[in-house]
Amino acid sequence: MDLILWRHAEAREPGPKFPDQDRELTAKGRKQALAVGKWLDARLAKDCRILVSPALRAQQTAAGLGRRFETVRAIEPGADPTTVLVAAGWPDAGCAVLVVGHQPMLGQVAALLLSGESAPWTLKKGGFIWLSNRTRRGERHVALKAALVPDLLL
C-alpha cells in the first residue's frame, strides 16, 4: 500500500474574519496546490483514494489535484495520528491513499511509520511524503518513496 501525506498549501493566518476552519489559500498557496497537484496526478494510480480534511485550506489544496475526493472528519486539524492511519486503512488498503491534512498530525504520522514512534516532524506547507509498505521475509517494512516541497516545482 502507498500512503501519501500532503500538507495543505499556504493559507491566510487565522483571525476574527478567518476562523481556523475557514482559512483559504493565499495566491502563493493556490500556485503550490496546482504545481504539486499536477506532479502527483501524473504519478498516482487512477484508483487512488483521496481523503481530505474538512478545513477550507485542505479542500482547496486537494482541488489542485483535479480529482474527486472524500471529506473525512477524522483528519481535521488536531487529529490523532492513529486515527488518520485507521481512516486510510493502513497498511492493508487495496489501493494507494492520499491524505490531505495538517501539521503537526502529518509529521507525526510520518514519524510513527518511519521510526516507530510519533515525533514532531515537520512537513512544509504544500509538501508531501510518499510512503509504501512491503513485506520481506515475513516482516513488514515502511519505505520512503518520495518527499517533495512546492518550492522545487515552482
| Record field, number of beta strands | 6
Low-pLDDT residue intervals, each spanning 5 or more residues: none
What topology, given as strand order, has the largest sheet? Answer: 3-2-4-1-5-6
SS-derived structural category? alpha/beta
- Share of helix, binned: 25-40%
Q: What integer is the average pLDDT?
A: 94
Domain count, please report it: 1
**H-E order:** EHEHEHEHEE
The second-level CATH architecture is 3-Layer(aba) Sandwich
Categorize the overall geometry: globular
The number of helical elements comes to 4
Estimated share of beta-strand residues: 15-25%
Query: What is the highest CATH level, the class?
Result: Alpha Beta
- The CATH homologous superfamily is termed Phosphoglycerate mutase-like
Please give the alpha-carbon distance between the first and last residues. Answer: 29 Å
